[in-house]
Amino acid sequence: MEMKKRLEGKVAVVTASTQGIGFAIAERFGLEGASVVVSSRKQKNVDEAVEKLRSKGIEVMGVVCHVSNAQHRKDLVEKTIQRYGHIDIIVSNAAANPSVDNILDMQESVLDKLWEINVKASILLLQAAASHLRNGSSVIIISSITGYQPPASMAMYGVTKTALLGLTKALAAEIGPQTRVNCIAPGFVPTHFADFLTSNEVLRKTLQDQTLLKRLGTTQDMAAAAAFLASDDSSYITGETLVVAGGLPSRL
Ligand code: NAP
C-alpha cells in the first residue's frame, strides 16, 4: 500500500522511540515524510533505531534522552533545533511501571518515579521545547486505557495515565491555537513493556476476549492514530484523547 505523505516538511520528536509504540510512531511519521528525532536512554538502542529507520529511506537523527534528566531533555531539543531549525510534532511517549504494589503500600520513591517519568517529564520537555513549536504544531501525549479505570496490578501507573488526560486538556487551552495537544490511550499491545501481561497465554486470551475486536493492539495501530493526530487531517481536534483499544470500555 502506498503510504500517504501527510507530514512532508515536518520535524517530529518522539521520546522513548527506539522500540515498541514509540518506534512504530517514529517509523510511520518518517514514512509519511517527516524528519524524525528518535531517543531513549541507551546509546546502543538509539543507534540501532536510527539505522533501521535510515534503511527505510527515512530522514532521522538519534539523541540519547532519559526523559527525567534535565540535561538530556535540553540536548534533545537543542540538537533537533541545530539540525532542523524548528519542531512541528512532539510525542511524549516514555513511561515507567516499576511496581505492582497497591497504592497504599507503595514506597514514596516509587510514587516519585511514577510521577517524574510518566507526568512531570512530559511537562518539562514541553517547557524546553515550547518556544520552538511552529504555528500548526501538534503535541501528542501517550496515556493508556488504564487511565480510565486503573486495574489493581497497575493502579498507580493507571492514575498517572489519568493525570495525562487532564494535562492534555490543560495544555491544549494553554498553547492553542498555535499548537494542538491531543492524547492517545492505547489498549493492550504486546511490547517489552507489556510483556508481563501479554506473554502469559491465559492472560493474553482474557485481554483479547475483553476487546470488541477480539485481538490485542499492534504498535502500527497506535502509529496510525498518532499520524492522524500529527497531521492536518485532525486540524480541528485539540484537547482530546483518542482511545485505541479495540473497543475496551473507556467512557461514553
Ligand atoms: P516498550 O516497547 O517497552 O518501549 C519502551 C521504549 O522506551 C524503549 O525504546 C526504551 O528504550 C524507552 N525508555 C524506557 N524508559 C525510558 C526513559 N525513562 N526515558 C526515555 N526512554 C525510555 O514500551 P511501549 O509498550 O511501546 O510503551 C510506550 C508507551 O505506551 C508508554 O507510555 C506506555 O505507558 C504506553 N502504553 C503501552 C501499552 C502496551 O500495552 N504496550 C498500553 C497502554 C499504554 P531504552 O531502554 O533505550 O530507554
Could you explain the architecture of this structure?
With 252 residues, this protein is α/β, with parallel strands linked by helices. The protein has a single domain (11-244), classed as Rossmann fold (3-Layer(aba) Sandwich), CATH 3.40.50.720. 43% of the residues lie in helices and 17% in strands. The chain has 8 helices and 7 strands; from the N terminus they run βαβαβαβαβαβαααβ. It has helices at residues 20-31, 43-54, 70-84, 108-129, 155-175, 195-198, 201-210, 219-230; strands at residues 11-14, 35-40, 60-64, 87-92, 133-142, 179-186, 241-244. Strands 3-2-1-4-5-6-7 form a 7-stranded parallel β-sheet, sandwiched between helices. Helix 1 crosses helix 8, helix 3 packs parallel to helix 4 (108-129) and helix 4 (108-129) packs parallel to helix 5 (155-175). The radius of gyration is 17 Å and the shape is globular. The chain starts with 10 loop residues before the first strand and ends in an 8-residue tail after the last strand. The structure holds NADP nicotinamide-adenine-dinucleotide phosphate. Residues 15-16, 18-22, 40-42, 45, 65-68, 93-95, 117, 142, 144, 186, 188-189, 191-194 line the site of NADP nicotinamide-adenine-dinucleotide phosphate (NAP). Residues 15-16, 18-22, 40-42, 45, 65-68, 93-95, 117, 142, 144, 186, 188-189, 191-194 line the site of NADP nicotinamide-adenine-dinucleotide phosphate.
